Amino acid sequence: MGGLKTYRYKVWIKQAEYDLDAAKLSLGNGFFEWACFQSEQSAEKALKALMVFCGAKPPKVHKLSILFKIVKQIRPDISSKIITESLQAVTFISRYPFIIPGDNLTPHDFMSNQIADECIHEAEAVLLFVKEVLES
Known about the structure:
Blueprint: H1 9-28, H2 32-53, H3 64-74, H4 85-90, H5 107-110, H6 113-135
Helix pairs in contact: 1-2, 1-6, 2-3, 2-6
């Protein structure tokens, strides 16, 4: 892919790890909306790390299901049964008050410990999946 610096995948992975660490700190401090958003960011960056590793330029796309499809196109030999339903469901709800039903709820009011915990677990699974592919 014309001079793409494939070693830069390490930067993407490192940032994915930082985002996941930040999500855990946010969860522990009761900022569930940020834990959700940071978890989604971690998963997104991990998938983009895999794309960079394979020599592809990561798209300016945030939807995890689309990123998984792109990864599958780049590397048809790998498959994943990773669930990212919680992460995808809260991608925008965790950040924008106008998406939340009801007139008086903020993302902070709407998100719960349980939702944030699910997001963190899903992000951990994505990061682990990507690391396993990178090491194989």
